[in-house]
Amino acid sequence: MESSSMTPVDWAKRPVLEKYANFNGRAPRAEYWWFFLAMVIASIVIGIIESILGLKGMVLGLYGPLSLLLWLAVIVPSIAVGVRRLHDTNRSGWWILLPLIPYCLALVLGGAAVMGAAAGSSAGMMAGAGLAGIFLLIGGICAIVLLVFMVLPGTPGDNRYGANPYGEGGGTAVAAE
Predict the structure, then answer these.
(1) Quick check: is 177 in a domain?
(2) For residue 171, is it within any domain?
(3) Within-domain flag for 95
(4) What pTM was estimated for this model as a whole?
(5) Which conformational region is residue 71 in: left (phi greater than 0), alpha (psi within -120 to 50 degrees), or beta?
(6) What is the average per-residue pLDDT within 24-31?
(7) How does pLDDT run across 151-172, given as a tens digit for each residue?
(8) pLDDT number for residue 118
(9) Which of 71, 139, 155, 79 is nearest to 104 (CA)?
């Protein structure tokens, strides 16, 4: 479908139906953000349905089974559209892991702090919890950097990841962006 004639619903469906696990090429802002909005709305609707049916908190005490199914269905296209969005800004898709590293370190340090507290070392627990907090803050900053990358306009014309997704015109005629 010609990108200039796509509706917001077309942009939202595209990562799941047309480019499910496609990590190559470029995704314009319209494709990424309409998909993101669709996933937020779907999560809210599923959360309401789970609350009405009494299913909330059935999985690990946090999630309902429908939320888990939605997450499993869209994790691959979510990562793929994020990688393609970074490609559109002429960045490597590996940038998508930027916030993950400090969050994992915070999880490890927080777990060590809890284990230290269980062993009776309150000083070790405080130090581990403090370091975990610092890494959580760093992860938050990294997430903001990634958000800025996702908001930036794509590279005009072709870049090393492919042709401009809007064609030669550069996207001026697309109503969804």
Answers:
(1) no
(2) no
(3) yes
(4) 0.80
(5) alpha
(6) 90
(7) 999 988 889 998 888 776 555 4
(8) 64
(9) 139
Start-to-end CA distance of the chain, whole Å, equals 16
Instruction: Name, in order, each residue with C-beta under 8 angstroms of 131's C-beta and a sequence gap of 6 or more.
Output: 106, 109, 113
Residue 168 lies in a domain: no
Confidence of residue 119 (pLDDT cuts 50, 70, 90): low
- Using the Cα atoms of residue 71, residue 73, residue 79 and residue 84 in order, give the sign of their dihedral: negative
Tally of structural domains, the chain: 1
CA–CA dist 169, 150 (Å, integer): 21
